[in-house]
Each structure stands twice: as C-alpha cells, then as structure tokens.
Amino acid sequence: MIHSSGDDRLETLLQQKLQAPLLADDGFSARVLAALPPRQNPWLIWGRIGVLAAAALAGVAVALWQSGDGIGLLAQMNRVIATVSNELADPEISLAFVITIAALALVLNFDDEAEMPSD
Amino acid sequence: MTPSDPELITRAIATGDRAAFGELVLRHQSAVRLFLRHLTRGDAALADDLAQETFLQAHRGLARFRGEAAFSTWLLGIAHNHWRNARRRQREVAWEPADLPVPAENFPSPARAVDLKEDLGAAMKQLDPDEQTALHLFYQQGLTHPEIAAVTGWPLGTVKTHLARAKDKLRPLLAIWNPRT
C-alpha cells in the first residue's frame, strides 16, 4: 500500500501521470481574434465628442436667446437648483436617489466585474 | 528574442496590437482549454466556448491586469468564473446525473489489468469535484497553493485541505500500484 512513507511515491506518481498534455491550437486563437470587437476609430470618437460639444453650445445659445439676457437665465437656473436641493434635503428622497444611482452603477458594471478576478 | 507576457500585454494595451494579444492567446490557450475541459468533465465544445469567452473578457479587461500574478493565473481565474456562471445557468435548466462519482465498489480493477493511468482516472472520479480541481491546478497546471486560491477564490486553508484530502483518498485507491506491496 502507499502509506505515509510512500507519500513521495504518490507524489511522484501524481506528478508523472497528471502531467498536462499540450492542446494543439487547431485554429482556436484565430477564432478568438476574429471574435474581438472591431477596433474603434479615434477620429470617430473625437467626432462624437465634437457633435456633443456643438449640441451643448447650441442648447446654451437657444436658452440665452429665449431668456433675452444671461442674468434671467442664471436666475432661472438658480431657482431650479434650489428646488432640487430642497427635494434632496428630504432624507427619504435622498435615500431613494442613492439607491437608484447605486443600482444603476451595479447593473452597468456587473457583467465585467463578475468575470474578472483580481490578480 | 521572444517577448515576455508583460511586454505583449503592454503592446496590446498601448497600441491595441492584436498580433500581441494573438500571441498571448496562442501561448495560453492550451492551459485555459485544458482547465475548462477538466471543469466541464470533458465537454470539449463547451470548454472551447467558455475559453473563447475567457479570452474576449481578458481582452476587454486587459488594462485592469496589474501584473501582481502571472498572466496565466489571471486567465484561469476568469475561466473559472465563466465556468461557475455557465454551471449556474445549466443548473437552472437540468441536473446532470452523469456528474455523479463512480460507485466505490467499481474500483480498483486489477483483475481487468487496466493501466495505471486508467486506474488513476477512475480514482480521480472518486474525489469531490473541488478536490479534483485542486489536483488539476496543482499537478497539471503547476500552480502554487496561493495561485490556486486566487484562481478558485477559495481561502488558502481550503486549498491545502482539498489537496490533502484528495491525496488521502487516492492513497488506498492506488495501493495496488505500489511495488512494495
């Protein structure tokens, strides 16, 4: 029998017989590379940022034009901010707000984080 | 000179070099696919699907690899997570009785003059799945105890316990192969 004195024998046996064979690639790497997402064109990214910036500027311009002057617009914005601040001062609404944001963050990040171990 | 894994990773992150990532896949595909074949109990098609998902996930998260562990260990960890998720989904569909261990009375089989490797394979089936995984990672993948803990998410003590228990169970099962008896 393989007893405690035969631990070395069992160890040798496991090391010899459990040696992993190398699996031939057989096109596996090529399939992985083919399945990679298409590379993002940097010009496309800057183009999107440009469109967003232009849209934001256009929005500000329209708001200024509607209010007649910048001071009226600022006063209106202050009123909106004050209203939102008052609402958030209510602990129950604050809690609901925090839970919603946390849930959204969790859902948006869940897939990647769940699969990714720390190294 | 052959570039190291960290060099290839740096190239893949910095310049989006797909050839560098392809070289990493080529280097580590065997270990990842073998590990997944072990976990899926030899289902090569499922193992390869999970292996592909593993490498795609690794590609997406490459920037998050800090280099504190070996790249292969990190990959095996991702593979293990993918398999766990796949198994969870499978369990919701059906339970596979084929996963049950072979009854003890069927083993050992000296009368049939089976080869040592076959007996070892049959003996391995007597072990709990986690014990088998610990043995696979230790002997077949050559990982250390802390690396196995990192891949599986088990505490270090659990890794040592699984290995010790596995060997305790294998010792009597492989007794006929000891030349001294």
Characterize the structure shown.
The complex is a heterodimer of chains A (119) and B (181). Chain A is mostly helical and 119 residues long. Chain A contains five helices and no strands. Chain A is elongated, with a radius of gyration of 31 Å. The relative contact order of chain A is 0.03. Chain B has two domains: 5-93, Orthogonal Bundle (Rna Polymerase Sigma Factor, Chain: A), CATH 1.10.1740.10; 101-177, Winged helix-like DNA-binding domain superfamily/Winged helix DNA-binding domain (Arc Repressor Mutant, subunit A), CATH 1.10.10.10. The longest helix of chain B is centred in the middle third of the chain and has 23 residues, at 71-93. The interface between A and B is large, with 33 and 55 residues.
Beta-sheet strand percentage of chain A?
Answer: under 5%
Low-confidence stretches of chain A: none
Low-confidence parts of chain B lasting 5 or more residues at pLDDT below 50?
94-106
Share of helix of chain A, binned = over 70%
Task: Quickly give the CATH architecture of the largest domain in chain B.
Answer: Orthogonal Bundle
Most residues in contact, chain pair and counts: A-B, 33 and 55 residues
Determine the N-to-C terminus distance of chain A: 41 Å
Strand/helix succession of chain B: HHHHHHHH
Count of distinct strands of chain A: 0
Largest sheet of chain A: none
| Helical stretch tally of chain B | 8
Q: Helix/strand-derived class of chain A?
A: mainly alpha
Average residue-wise pLDDT of chain B: 84
Strand content of chain B: under 5%
Q: Specify the overall morphology of chain A.
A: elongated
The radius of gyration computed from the alpha-carbon positions of chain B, rounded to a whole number of angstroms, is 19 Å
